[in-house]
Write the structure tokens for this entry.
Amino acid sequence: MNETKRQLKVAKLLQEELADLLQKEMPQLKAGAMVTITKVRISPDLSVARFYLSVFGGTPSEKVLSGFQEAEKEIRLRLGNRIRNQVRIIPHIVFYIDDSLDYIDRIDHLLKGEN
């Protein structure tokens, strides 16, 4: 599925703004872990944005994810205030854990013959 230039631009804008928001205004959401926004996918009508988070550190990724899901409305409000002059509608946001690094690591172990 190819994304349009507009989708890519809005996704990049959302990724940058959420990263800045987490760093400056809402560091408590990270729960002591290092959280990286690995990618943002946005629907063709720009109404839904899916954020993929990678969590490093001692905090379980499920705990970090639930914190983001609980603060979803506040995050959307703050993101909306930041991007309101650049988009027509503020997309609904959904958070997912990006486990692609775990998947790559598992494949690597299997190829090396390790369990």
About this structure: The chain is about 50% helix and 20% strand. Residues 5-112 form a domain with the GMP Synthetase; Chain A, domain 3 fold (CATH 3.30.300.20).
